[in-house]
Amino acid sequence: MLFVTAAAAIPLTSVAAADWSKARTVTVVTLEYVFKPANLTFHQGVPYRLHIDNRGKETHEFTAPDFFKAVELRDAKPLNADRTEIVIQPGQHADLYFVAKQPGKYDLRCSDHDWAGMVGSITITP
Question: Of the chain's two ends, which shows fewer C-beta atoms within 10 Å, N or C?
Answer without folding.
Answer: N
